[in-house]
Amino acid sequence: MRVCVVGSGAREHALAVALARSASVVVTPGNPGIAESDGVDVTGAPPVEVGADLVVVGPEAPLVAGLADELRSRGRRVLGPGRDGARLEGSKAFMKELATAAGVPTAAWASFGRADDAVSFLRSLPGPYVVKTDGLAAGKGVLVTDELSEAVADVEAKLSGASFGEAGRRVVVEECLAGVELSVLALCDGERFVLLPPAQDHKRLADGDLGPNTGGMGAFSPVPGASDEVLGRVVDEILEPTVAELRRRGVDYRGVLYAGLMLTEDGPKLIEYNVRFGDPEAEVVLPRCTVDLAELFLSAADGRVGSGDVPVAGAAACVVLAAPGYPAAPVLGGAVSGLGSAGEVEGVTVYHAGTTRGEDGVLRVAGGRVLAVTGVGADVGEARSRAYEAVRRVGFEGMQLRTDIASTAPSGEWPGAKEGAR
Ligand code: AMP
Ligand code: GLY
Q: Is 340 part of any domain?
């Protein structure tokens, strides 16, 4: 089987490596790390022009723009929802409305296009305050703050278009949920789904869960607290009703449905949906899967994925290395060293996120997140120490990373840490 992966980040690198275990893989447009992976080609050709039995679309933006519809209209088999299903990520107001209609537990919310309405709603809340852009903002459109004045300023900057352009012209204001976060990825075939192993993402920039929200600074899997009971509730109370509501609205959702969850005292609640693999979640979820992923993805694209859990083994931890100035204003161009040595650490794969190789042959920083270093091992502790051993061998000027990935839950204690985890 030949699989085409669309995208150019560490998620797509992890997809390419995982798929190359059982298929030949071509990635468009890819990156220098992907180009050097065994069994993987890269091409600059647009996805519609790449010959393949299956197309896997990595990022959300092309899905929201309708790439999967275009490919399907040409008879291609695709893992990724059409424009209708991708609205779950493309519009937070749509996602909240659908979740509410489906009876899915989620934070109380309201959406606004006018600043004075949003501000008077904020003033009526006890805080902390959560303000989100309605549209896509690369994981950076969410403010969570205790300060009313900061929330008001954020609403005004978003709605005026100053901070996120058109994506911020509508905002969603939410109740703040307390608990531990969990990412659960389901592979849907339009009607049913299988569960990939759950993961936890560290969203804040700095150790101790401090600093601004980012696209994700690291992840690990399995997750203490993600017990069979918790995952059963996620399936019954969140994923099943969502897929049923999508079908009721005529949406044939074939792709990854990624539920960002808060495990609260009242049970799991939905924070958000993404319509693709998480990044860096993919970098810890995919290496743990022991099935033929090309066949599994094709079965979802063909509407015959079935149900249950994808078989997994071991554990994985991923540490993201980010550019100086990330996330606000990444400084690009620094030379990256030590990758050869890092890749020699047992159980480690270095996925490229934002790199470029100039005519001088030197690998340089070309994006906010630069590398995603994944270690696999028998348990999260071993996976984590392997990843950090490799990280110590890599360097570029101003490199930012967290030193506490997979050592503590981002939001504090792990509830039910002694229960079984998947
Ligand atoms: P999102 O892009 O919607 O996943 O939000 C990014 C991050 O903001 C989440 O991973 C949470 O850490 C935080 N967040 C979003 N919504 C809420 C909420 N209602 N309550 C508490 N934290 C939230
Ligand atoms: N890691 C969060 C995301 O992929 O949206």
A: yes
> Are 189 and 282 part of one and the same domain?
yes
Q: Residue 162: its pLDDT value, please?
A: 82
Q: How many domains does the chain have?
A: 4
- Asked if the structure places residue 418 within a domain, the reply is no
The pTM (predicted TM-score) of the whole model is 0.94
Burial grade of 175 (CB within 10 A; 0-12, 13-18, 19 or more): middle
Atom 3 in ligand 2: residue holding the nearest Cα: 278
pLDDT band at residue 147, thresholds of 50, 70 and 90? very high
Average of per-residue pLDDT values in the chain: 93
Return the sign of the alpha-carbon dihedral for residues 253, 254, 255, 261.
positive
When pLDDT is cut at 50, 70 and 90, the band that residue 265 belongs to is very high
- State residue 417's pLDDT score: 39
In a 3-state reduction of DSSP, which class is residue 157?
helix
CA of 279 to the centre of ligand 2 (A): 5
Q: Are residues 125 and 160 in the same domain?
A: yes
Residue ending a domain, choose from 287, 313, 339: 313
42 lies in which domain range? 2-82
Q: Is 11 exposed, middle or buried (0-12, 13-18, 19+ CB in 10 A)?
A: buried
Same domain, yes or no, for 321 and 272? no
Q: Is the CB of 144 under 6 A from ligand 1?
A: yes
The ligand whose atoms approach the alpha carbon of 127 most closely is 1
Q: With a cut of 50, say whether residue 420 has pLDDT above it.
A: no
Amino acid code (one letter) for 136 = L
